[in-house]
Specification:
9 helices
Length: about 230
């Protein structure tokens, strides 16, 4: 009788243990599934933010690119005219007036990327090549941003040097003897050695072909993220 009781207790214990153990395993497995699903949702949300950030950066990039390309075209026109403003048609000067008096900069947002880098989500993204391409794209944009910033510093310096060089005699000679004050100032600029040096520098300041490369990279990354995480 004792043997039977002892056998029952051992068997009962094993059955109860199996039930509890199975419950624990199911609980951990379910918890892991929930954790994985939650992490995937977080990755999806962050990557969607990055996609929007890249799209915003792309719009900013296209605006800045158009201004730089206009500067390049005007510098070519002036060099073809032997740096003589009088040889350039008035409508061309009006079309490219920003070349003489306006500048810009490339504003790049990286907040969403910093969120991804600051989290522990990167290690859970299986497509490491996608991550590498993404980080490289941001790196290319940043290097281009620095070159554009340096370019506009050069341009601003040339414009401000001309403004600071204006005196009463120059104002009378250039401003009062032209159809407009603006055209008078442009004429003054085109006789100032600092601005003439800038005109000659524009096209070869850096490898502007990279503008096309970055445009292609941004399009590629945005489309890829749209397919993967939309």
């Amino acid at each position: 009788m004792a043997a039977i009781l002892k056998g029952w207790r051992i068997g009962d214990y094993l059955r109860q243990f199996s039930i509890v153990a199975a419950g624990v395993i199911v609980t951990f497995w379910g918890s892991d599934l929930i954790s994985t699903h939650s992490r995937e949702k977080e990755i999806r949300s962050v990557m969607q933010l990055i996609k929007q950030e890249l799209a915003n950066n792309h719009e900013e990039f296209k605006h800045t690119r158009s201004m730089i390309e206009a500067d390049i075209r005007m510098s070519r026109i002036l060099k073809k005219a032997n740096l003589e403003l009088e040889s350039v048609p008035s409508d061309t000067i009006e079309k490219y007036w920003e070349f003489f008096s306006s500048s810009s900069e490339l504003n790049v947002d990286t907040d969403a990327l910093e969120v991804l880098k600051g989290s522990q989500l990167m290690q859970h993204i299986n497509d490491k090549q996608m991550l590498q391409d993404l980080l490289q794209t941001y790196g290319y944009i940043e290097r281009m941003r620095k070159d554009i910033s340096d370019y506009y510093k050069l341009k601003n310096n040339a414009i401000m040097t001309c403004i600071e060089s204006l005196d009463k005699q120059s104002i009378k000679k250039y401003m009062f003897n032209n159809t407009s004050v603006y055209k008078g100032f442009y004429a003054f600029q085109m006789e100032h050695p600092v601005f003439l040096s800038f005109v000659s520098t524009v096209e070869g300041y850096c490898d502007w072909r990279r503008l096309n490369n970055i445009d292609s990279l941004l399009n590629k990354e945005i489309n890829l993220l749209n397919e993967r995480f939309d």
